[in-house]
Amino acid sequence: MSRTHHHGFELPKLPSLLRHALPRFVEGVIAPVAVFYAAFALLGLNGALVAAVTWVYGGIAWRYLRGHQVSAMLVLAALGVTVRAALAAATHSPVVYFLQPTLGTLLVSMAFLASVPLRRPLAQKLATDMVPMPEAFLRHARVRQFFLRISLLWSLVFFANALFSLWMLFNQSIGTYLWVRTSVVALLGACAVGISLFGFRRCLQHVNREPALAA
């Protein structure tokens, strides 16, 4: 008697992934920068801080009114923005507002890096949060090796992001920082996503070509 263990997995189509990710990217990256900068240009620092906080809590209220789930992560993010805005208002410095998330990015880079020697790649955890994958597939040696390498890649991306952001923050105007930094970070992220998807597809091709194991 034989048992078949198939570790194959099919990645959702790219348009489907983009439809899922693009609105979140616009909402979480592009829109906050546009709101803050527009308010900063028209109303000054305090007006920009109020606009940033209003944007975040408005997003939470919009989800709640539409019957969508408000995640604990989103609530924590809103509290973080509130604290950042309060500190920036108290010090009258927009640098303080942007310094905290930049340091947070540096910590994320360290977390990705630390997950590699621990053999618990953070890239795998994030990928399975977005696209559920079977355990048999995730246990495959080639898949585990892929996620370890991608965790290293994202550690480098976040580290470069943090260093560039810090340099921009202390050497350029806030307007230049907002748009140039956002553009560079988006480009770095897009390249890393492209490399990740390309590598994952190649990994899938190798794994799915292997015959199912029989016992």
TrEMBL record:
The chain crosses the membrane at residues 34-58, 70-89, 95-116, 146-170, 176-200. It comes from Actinomadura viridis. Keywords: Membrane, Transmembrane, Transmembrane helix. The lineage of its organism: Bacteria, Bacillati, Actinomycetota, Actinomycetes, Streptosporangiales. This is Intracellular septation protein A. The keyword Transmembrane helix applies. The keyword Membrane applies. It comes from the Bacteria.
